[in-house]
């Protein structure tokens, strides 16, 4: 969260004192919630139960509250309730313990985070959002440091458990060819970095040099294997790495291998290609004709899926979704609204439409 956001929610002139964490699970349910709970700029008030008003004479000052997740009681102002759930801004002192219940439950954490984001949209007009300059410098670095801090406990296990390096190439929205490096062990996957390979031919040697760099960075003795897809250049890179480090072995990506097997299957059966081509035609037709799509959408809860050939199993996904939508598609092409619309257009359009209608029946 930005400092501005802290300023927004901070109770002014509150020099509150955090009491020792009294682990008392006091019964507080009989206490009624103060009216300030409706305050949309302070959404976290719903996540705590107020036990008392504390020592502060200031109405906005420190209050005794209990977290509804961990049931631990504290005395503080609102800003520290925030710190309890989300931690402190970088460079500030942690004056309250992070909520152990929220730290242990990612789903609850994300739910709280979404609540905070929607609170920003309801913020009073006086709330000043961070400038783009600040967002891409100070705040971004702050986030990066937070991520580093959070992932350090996983990184510590790299050196005790060992890791696999997983690498894959993809293009970003600017069509820059990137190759990423992920580090995987039983504790989870960590993104290490990605490099832009624009203007560099992705031959085996270029890839192996890149991956050898990653191995050096982690420490060769902690790396057990390197996983890439099954393309010839990656295979060659894997062999190069195995030559340099005898204890590291290369494994082809299992999903990519399965995808290739299915591709081989498909090439063996002509009818399969035929079915796919017809399915693709139906999908393209609907997606290119907004009127047809509108009639279909009135009859279906599911959307027709767009083709994304770069995804694994895209052929299967396309056909599976068509099968799931079959009833809705069959209903669409016998509706009066469809027939009325089908009368319009030139001969070519009509021909395609009839073809499409026949396939969907
Ligand atoms: Zn808590």
TrEMBL record:
<feature type="compositionally biased region" description="Low complexity">
    <location>
        <begin position="23"/>
        <end position="35"/>
    </location>
</feature>
<dbReference type="InterPro" id="IPR007021">
    <property type="entry name" value="DUF659"/>
</dbReference>
<feature type="region of interest" description="Disordered">
    <location>
        <begin position="1"/>
        <end position="42"/>
    </location>
</feature>
<protein>
    <recommendedName>
        <fullName>DUF659 domain-containing protein</fullName>
    </recommendedName>
</protein>
<dbReference type="Pfam" id="PF04937">
    <property type="entry name" value="DUF659"/>
</dbReference>
<dbReference type="InterPro" id="IPR012337">
    <property type="entry name" value="RNaseH-like_sf"/>
</dbReference>
<feature type="compositionally biased region" description="Acidic residues">
    <location>
        <begin position="1"/>
        <end position="22"/>
    </location>
</feature>
<feature type="domain" description="DUF659">
    <location>
        <begin position="130"/>
        <end position="282"/>
    </location>
</feature>
């Amino acid at each position: 969260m930005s400092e501005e956001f802290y300023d927004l929610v901070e109770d002014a002139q509150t020099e509150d004192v955090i009491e020792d964490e009294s682990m008392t699970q006091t019964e507080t349910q009989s206490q009624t919630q103060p009216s300030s709970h409706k305050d949309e700029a302070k959404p976290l008030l719903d996540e705590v139960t107020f036990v008392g008003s504390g020592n502060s004479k200031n109405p906005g000052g420190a209050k005794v509250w209990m977290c509804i997740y961990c049931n631990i009681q504290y005395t503080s102002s609102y800003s520290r309730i925030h710190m309890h759930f989300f931690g402190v801004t970088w460079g500030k002192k942690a004056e309250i313990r992070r909520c152990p219940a929220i730290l242990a439950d990612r789903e609850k954490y994300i739910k709280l985070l979404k609540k905070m984001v929607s609170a920003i949209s309801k913020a009073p007009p006086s709330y000043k959002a961070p400038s783009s300059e600040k967002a891409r410098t100070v705040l971004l670095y702050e986030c990066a440091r937070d991520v580093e801090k959070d992932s350090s406990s996983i990184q510590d296990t790299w050196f005790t458990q060992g890791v696999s390096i997983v690498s894959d190439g993809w293009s970003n929205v600017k069509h820059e060819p990137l190759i990423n490096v992920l580090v995987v062990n039983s504790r989870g996957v960590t993104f290490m970095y990605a490099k832009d390979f624009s203007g560099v031919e992705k031959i085996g040697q270029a890839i192996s040099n890149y991956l050898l760099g990653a191995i050096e960075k982690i420490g060769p003795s902690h790396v057990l294997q390197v996983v890439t897809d099954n393309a010839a250049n990656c295979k060659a890179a894997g062999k190069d790495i195995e030559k340099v480090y005898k204890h590291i072995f290369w494994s082809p990506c299992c999903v990519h291998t399965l995808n290739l097997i299915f591709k081989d299957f498909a090439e063996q059966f002509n009818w399969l290609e035929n079915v796919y081509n017809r399915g693709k035609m139906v999908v393209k037709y609907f997606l290119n004709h907004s009127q047809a799509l509108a009639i279909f959408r009135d009859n279906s809860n599911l959307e027709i899926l767009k083709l994304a050939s770069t995804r694994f199993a895209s052929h299967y996904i396309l056909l599976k979704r068509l099968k799931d939508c079959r009833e809705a598609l069959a209903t669409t092409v016998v509706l009066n609204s469809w027939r009325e619309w089908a009368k319009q257009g030139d001969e070519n359009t009509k021909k395609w439409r009839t073809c499409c209608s026949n396939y969907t029946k």
